[in-house]
Structures are given as structure tokens and as C-alpha cells.
Recover the amino acids of this structure.
């Protein structure tokens, strides 16, 4: 894989990436997108906003929107360091490249994660794991998933954080030496995903531990996660 | 004429609720025990609210005859446990106690399985006063000189889901393994009461995220049956192609991981990549590597059109070629095979007693496969031979996967060559009121069983999900008896069960 020096691997034609909203097309008084969204990712007040942190990228809103005001593009770069930056259509929406908070220098060539699945459905986990296989091979960037939190620089959390995993997550976080970073990967870990507001879960990792990077998707495509990690490390620069 | 004790029915055949026999408790108990002793299998046994009391519903399968049957009884606070005379009931009865506060008296090992809040107000069989702490329970212990206990999890070393394993060991030798789950409990069954809602399909897609197609197909079959629609043939074919792709991807991933667990890197490295290629095939169909969005009630929203077909077939043939080379390397390597053979053995008798399903059952020589025994969709017209192996060890569980992978891609080729023309979707209407349907699908881990029950308004008064892992976790525990503890990762991977599918 030539990426990040060369072009990224091709994504399938039907891939649903970065959403775009065209307010000019949005019909007055119509709130069908809001009603159809399973996770209340869409809200319409003065204008339509779409929270990628809640979005499952199911596309039900695009089916429902007769005027085509919402569509999902092919851009895979979705991650952000601030939660608010994930809300498409909000004033402070915007994904910052290079990252606004720079990572401690020691993490730039060596970054080890303990992965904690806290109610994840094994899709986010699988597509994090796939980064360690041939071709993706995140090892070449010094990124590795390690067995013990004591050997880690941070956590990569998946799942909404079930009540039954809260304590284990807190203990794992406490076992990671400082400075440490936390990545919330997938709609569940960012906002609870389809399980949002269930009494059995918390609404994402940020309810329990401070989160440094949010990676949207259900699950995030491996390329989205890889780009998020490399950008966070300061290895990629924006190419619009 | 005497009242029938058992209602026979077929996979995805809706029945009015009042046709389901309600037996006296003792009669229900005897009927289940006798049916299982006579070769039936317990697909599901669950409670559903019935006024002040709880109605227990049992779904039994006679695999060879391709017939299901349903029976029920009403219980209040307790009833005589079925488990002492029917091992297949043991996990179900623990679930019933935990969800409904109904105590199965005489259950030999009555413990919670998920550490969840109950689904009705009732006395807690464990007197926890609402303070439920996951994993806080007595574990089976062996005492004696040089006996030691090993506790693993919930957080594991790999990038996998959480669960707790408690080993009783003598040196390297495992006497007993007890598995304690529930860490992934997200309250899905509770949230399904009163459905379907906008979220329902997304619960199905993420019940076990690596089995998105399997679970969404089971759900959609249930909805289609209850609303009395027939799905167009083209959509059926695309669903079945996706189901087999899911099987190929996971089986290839597992074969690679098994090779990795014995340090045989060539197969491990290739299969890691090839699995991704198969996921990409699913993404060609619907844009998502796990098939999110592909299966919807009434059909499929995405077509496998002619443009796509050529790319699809080209990539599939690449997968076939690469996987064949990479996986045959494993069988040809005696040092790898020496680790697989005789590790984690389960006899055919044990497999039958536990009620194993899927590749784990077929690796004990048990011929059971929903695609043959209870076919739905395209499997009614195109048959996939059942792949079995008799030895019951890690090798058998690996080799059955390989046999299945080959049959799955042959099936996909056949489907693509003769893809039926026509529509992709029909509209589904309201669900029949006061009805029940059992929907079975052979997921890659084995039998997925969904049971939908509707009330007077056509909404779910109960939606029961039985992931294949629910049957098979106990099989893993038994396979570890008298094994070396260092073989646990290998044995575990040879089952590769779902935590979230179990925990719901």
C-alpha cells in the first residue's frame, strides 16, 4: 500500500463517507430526515445539522429527503479531536488538519494501544484488527496493539461502554501510564450509537474517560481509522 | 379428541398465538424432556410476560424431518427445572431465572448469565436487591494440594470482546473451565418490546456485528412472514450470496487466526489479508464491509447489476485462488497439524447432549445445518451439502470451515450465473396481531433463532434472539477439560464464539 505517500486504496463505489448538507435545497417545514434517523443524529432548527458522532451512515435520511439536501460523499476523512467538530452544518464544524493539539513528540514514531471493547459488536474491533494485517500494516508507522495497558500509550475504545464494562474500562485506563491518549472509535464509542440512552449503557467513552480523538463510522472503514491515526501523529498533511 | 401437546410448524411459518398449546407445568416438562431424549433439539426456551405470570415457550427442532414444534406453559415464581434431565436447557433456564425472576427448582448450577436487570418486577433469585455487579458470583472451585486457579478477562490480550474465564488447574492441566459473560450486555431484548421501531434493524445489524447478514436475514424473514409478503427471488439470491460471503470471510479469518495461534505465520498472514478482500466484496454490494444496510424487510436496497457482476466475479476468483493456496499450506504442514490434532476434543455424544450448533457441531460428526434442514430463501432451491468431520478436535473445527468455504463459493458462483431477474423489494405492511413466528438462519457460527411474538396491536410483546454462541459457549468449556491451559487460545479460536451475540 502506497498510502500515505501515494494515493489511498480505492473505496467501493457505494461507500458512504463524509455527509454534505445543502441548506438551499432543504424544504421549509419538512422534518422527515429528523423523524427517520434512528439515532437522532439529525436536527433541524434554523438549519439542518448532522452529527457524525451519532450517525450510523445508514443513509435512511437520504432516501427520505425528497429534495436531495443530504447526501453522503466518498470522503473517508472523518475523524476530529473535538466532539463539536463532528456536527456537519454547525458553526464550529470542521476537521482540522494538521491536528490542533499536537501529540507529545515521543508518540510520533511509536504509539501503542490497548484496545478495550466495551459493548462493541465486533465490527469496530475487526476493522481495527485489520490494520495490523499485511497491506495495511500499521506497524510500519510504529503503531501497535499491545496486550497490557502497562505497555500502552493509550486506549482505543469501541462500544457504547456498557454498565457491565465501566469498571473494567476505568481500571484499564488507570493502568496506562501518563501521558496517555484515548481514541473513541465508532458511533457507539462516540455517542452510544444505536444503544444511546439505554439504561444498560453509557453514551460513549467520553462519559467515563477523557477522549482525545473521535473516529466516526459504523464501523469506521479501516482507511478512516488509519488516516485518523496518521493525522493525529502528524504524519499526513491535508490534500484537498 | 385430546388436545395436541405440541404444535408442529415450519421455519418462518406464522401461527396465531392461541394455537400454541398451553400445557400444565409437569406435562410441559415431560414433553420437552421426552422430545429431546427422542432426538429433538432445543432451539429456544424463553419467558414472555403473561399478566401476573410468565409464559414459558419452548421451540424444538427435529433436524432430519425439517420440522419445528412449539409448546408452552405458565409459571409464576418457580417451577421444576428441566435441566437435571435435559442438559440442553441449562443455559436457557439460567436466562429465564435472570430475566423473569422465575426460579427453576433443582437446577444444578443456577447463576446469572449476563448480570442484567430483570425484565419484570419479581423477587431476585439471588437476593441482590437490585445491586447487580457483573461477575460477582460463586465460581466452581477445586481445592487440594498444587491446585491453582487462573482468572482471565474481562479485558483480554488481543483485540477482542470481553469475557471472564476461570480455570481450575493442576500444573498445566485444566480440570475445569467456567465461563462468565455479560460484559457486553446492551439491553437489546428489553429495547425490542413494543417494536419494530426505527432502531430495530440497527439492533439486528449490531447484535453480533460479524454476523450482520445472518441476524438481519433472520429478523427480516420474521417480519416478512408476519406481514404476509413474499420477497422477490432476486433479493433472496443477493441475501444468500451475502450470507455465504459472511461465512467465507469469517471462516478464512478464523483459519488464519488458528494458524497464528500455533505460530504458523504464512497462513496467518495471507488469511488476514484475504479476509479483508472478502469483506470488500460485501462492500461492493452495499458500501459497507459488514453488510450494514444490505438486508431490509421486503428485500434488499442494492442490486448486483451487470456492471458490478464482472468486478465482483473477478475479485471472488482472486479470493478463491489466494485462499486455496494459503490454506492448503496449513494442512500440508505436519508441525502445525500436530498442534491441531487431538486438541480440545468433544465427542459426538457430548456435542449432542449440549445441543451444539454450526461448525462446532458438524466437527463432532453431527449432521445439522439450517440451510439443509430448515431451508429458506434460495436454499430451498439450491442445496449446499452439509460438511462434517468426525474427530471433534481443533483440526475438525478448522477443517469443517475449509470444506464450508469451498462449498460457499461454489454456491455464490452458481447464484451469480443464474441470478433471477425482477424486483429487489416489496413493501411490508402491518404485522399480524397475536401471532408468533420462528425464523432460523444458518449463520457462520451456526443456527440463528429469532422468535417474534406480536400483541393485539401487531407490535412485539416479545422478540427472542438465540445466537449460536448461546448453545456453544458451554461446548468450549467442556472441550478444555483435561487440556493444557496453554492450548486455551487455540481451542477458544477454534470455536470463535460471540460475546455480544450472547450478552445481547
Amino acid at each position: 500500500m502506497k498510502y500515505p505517500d501515494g494515493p489511498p486504496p480505492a473505496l467501493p463505489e457505494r461507500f458512504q463517507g463524509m455527509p454534505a448538507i445543502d441548506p438551499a435545497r432543504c424544504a421549509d417545514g419538512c422534518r422527515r430526515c429528523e423523524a427517520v434517523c434512528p439515532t437522532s443524529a439529525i436536527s433541524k432548527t434554523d438549519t439542518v445539522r448532522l452529527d457524525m458522532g451519532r450517525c450510523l451512515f445508514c443513509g435512511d435520511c437520504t432516501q427520505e429527503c425528497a429534495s436531495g439536501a443530504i447526501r453522503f460523499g466518498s470522503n473517508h476523512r472523518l475523524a476530529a479531536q473535538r466532539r463539536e467538530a463532528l456536527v456537519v452544518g454547525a458553526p464550529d464544524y470542521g476537521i482540522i488538519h494538521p491536528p490542533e493539539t499536537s501529540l507529545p513528540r515521543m508518540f510520533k514514531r511509536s504509539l501503542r494501544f490497548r484496545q478495550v471493547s466495551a459493548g462493541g459488536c465486533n465490527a469496530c474491533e475487526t476493522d481495527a484488527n485489520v490494520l495490523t494485517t499485511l497491506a495495511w500494516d500499521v506497524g510500519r508507522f510504529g503503531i501497535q496493539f499491545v496486550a497490557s495497558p502497562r505497555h500502552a500509550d493509550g486506549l482505543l475504545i469501541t462500544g457504547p461502554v456498557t454498565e457491565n464494562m465501566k469498571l473494567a474500562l476505568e481500571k484499564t485506563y488507570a493502568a496506562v501510564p501518563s501521558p496517555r491518549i484515548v481514541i473513541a472509535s465508532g458511533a457507539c464509542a462516540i455517542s452510544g450509537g444505536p444503544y444511546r440512552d439505554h439504561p444498560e449503557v453509557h453514551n460513549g467513552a467520553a462519559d467515563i474517560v477523557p477522549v482525545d480523538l473521535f473516529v466516526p463510522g459504523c464501523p469506521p472503514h479501516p482507511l478512516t481509522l488509519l488516516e485518523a491515526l496518521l493525522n493525529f501523529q502528524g504524519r499526513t498533511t491535508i490534500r484537498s | 379428541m385430546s388436545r395436541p401437546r405440541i404444535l408442529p410448524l415450519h421455519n418462518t411459518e406464522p401461527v396465531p398465538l392461541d394455537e400454541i398449546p398451553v400445557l400444565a407445568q409437569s406435562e410441559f416438562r415431560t414433553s420437552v424432556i421426552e422430545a429431546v431424549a427422542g432426538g429433538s433439539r432445543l432451539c429456544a426456551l424463553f419467558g414472555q410476560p403473561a399478566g401476573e405470570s410468565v409464559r414459558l415457550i419452548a421451540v424444538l427442532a427435529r433436524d432430519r424431518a425439517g420440522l419445528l414444534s412449539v409448546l408452552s406453559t405458565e409459571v409464576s415464581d418457580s417451577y421444576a427445572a428441566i435441566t437435571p434431565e435435559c442438559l440442553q436447557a441449562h443455559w436457557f433456564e439460567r436466562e429465564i431465572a435472570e430475566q423473569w425472576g422465575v426460579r427453576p427448582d433443582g437446577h444444578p448450577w443456577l447463576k446469572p448469565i449476563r448480570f442484567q436487570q430483570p425484565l419484570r418486577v419479581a423477587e431476585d433469585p439471588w437476593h441482590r436487591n437490585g445491586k447487580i455487579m457483573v461477575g460477582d458470583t460463586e465460581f466452581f472451585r477445586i481445592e487440594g494440594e498444587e491446585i491453582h486457579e487462573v482468572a482471565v478477562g474481562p479485558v483480554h490480550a488481543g483485540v477482542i470482546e470481553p469475557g471472564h474465564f476461570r480455570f481450575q488447574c493442576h500444573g498445566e492441566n485444566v480440570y475445569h473451565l467456567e465461563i462468565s459473560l455479560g460484559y457486553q450486555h446492551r439491553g437489546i431484548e428489553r429495547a425490542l418490546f413494543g417494536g419494530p421501531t426505527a432502531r430495530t434493524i440497527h439492533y439486528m445489524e449490531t447484535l453480533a456485528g460479524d454476523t450482520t447478514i445472518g441476524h438481519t436475514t433472520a429478523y427480516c424473514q420474521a417480519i416478512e412472514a408476519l406481514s404476509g409478503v413474499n420477497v422477490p427471488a432476486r433479493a433472496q439470491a443477493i441475501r444468500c450470496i451475502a450470507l455465504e460471503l459472511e461465512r467465507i470471510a469469517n471462516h478464512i479469518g478464523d483459519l488464519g487466526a488458528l494458524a497464528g495461534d500455533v505460530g504458523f505465520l504464512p497462513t496467518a498472514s495471507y488469511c488476514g489479508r484475504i479476509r479483508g478482500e472478502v469483506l470488500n466484496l460485501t462492500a461492493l454490494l452495499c458500501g459497507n464491509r459488514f453488510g450494514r444496510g444490505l438486508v431490509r424487510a421486503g428485500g434488499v436496497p442494492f442490486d448486483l447489476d451487470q456492471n458490478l457482476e464482472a468486478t465482483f466475479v473477478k475479485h471472488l476468483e482472486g479470493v478463491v485462488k489466494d485462499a486455496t493456496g494459503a490454506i492448503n499450506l496449513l494442512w500440508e504442514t505436519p508441525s502445525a497439524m500436530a498442534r491441531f490434532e487431538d486438541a480440545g476434543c468433544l465427542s459426538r455424544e457430548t456435542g449432542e447432549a449440549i445441543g451444539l450448533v454450526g461448525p462446532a457441531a458438524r466437527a463432532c460428526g453431527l449432521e445439522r445445518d439450517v440451510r439443509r434442514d430448515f431451508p429458506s430463501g434460495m436454499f430451498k432451491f439450491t442445496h449446499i451439502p452439509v460438511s462434517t468431520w468426525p474427530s471433534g478436535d481443533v483440526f475438525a473445527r478448522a477443517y469443517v470451515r475449509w470444506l464450508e468455504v469451498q462449498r460457499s463459493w461454489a454456491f455464490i458462483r452458481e447464484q451469480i450465473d443464474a441470478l433471477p431477474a425482477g424486483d429487489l423489494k416489496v413493501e411490508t405492511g402491518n404485522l399480524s396481531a397475536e401471532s408468533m413466528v420462528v425464523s432460523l438462519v444458518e449463520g457462520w457460527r451456526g443456527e440463528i433463532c429469532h422468535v417474534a411474538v406480536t400483541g393485539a396491536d401487531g407490535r412485539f410483546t416479545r422478540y427472542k434472539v438465540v445466537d449460536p454462541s448461546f448453545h456453544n459457549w458451554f461446548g468450549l468449556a467442556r472441550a478444555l477439560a483435561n487440556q493444557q491451559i496453554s492450548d486455551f487460545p487455540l481451542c477458544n479460536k477454534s470455536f470463535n464464539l460471540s460475546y455480544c451475540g450472547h450478552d445481547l
Observations:
- The longest helix of chain B spans residues 233-261.
- The first strand of chain B starts at residue 7 and ends at 9.
